[in-house]
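Hi V.,

You were right to ask for the full record rather than a summary. Here it is.
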Amino acid sequence: MRIPANTRLADELVEDDVVEMATLTSAQTGVPCTIFISTAMGGYGPRVKYFLQRRRWQPSFSVAVADVPTAVANSLPVRVVRQLAPQVIDWLSRNKDALLDYWYRGDTWTQSEVNDFVQKLQRFDSSLRLSAITG
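Predicted structure:
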């Protein structure tokens, strides 16, 4: 039996992307349907992805996690994005610093740290938005 030479974990992972992700429901975000968040992945910057249905290859739109969040990708009807993007952007703005921390450092967090992070995210409150419009 031949046993391979010792390899440092960092050397083994050099070709692998370590990604943590979470699929958040409306009960967690206050935004109808599902928001997908992850640690750094792909060749783009920090973003969240909104899905009408919680299935992997469903139509979605993505919003950049930035000082001025904007939709950066879309495969949903324009009317859906116009209706829901403001809610996603409001939710993202409330949680920008936490989402950036998760994007850049979350791949080193333990499961309990990820759970704590998710629990501390602020929800979108549609009544505040309505009162600001009608007030």
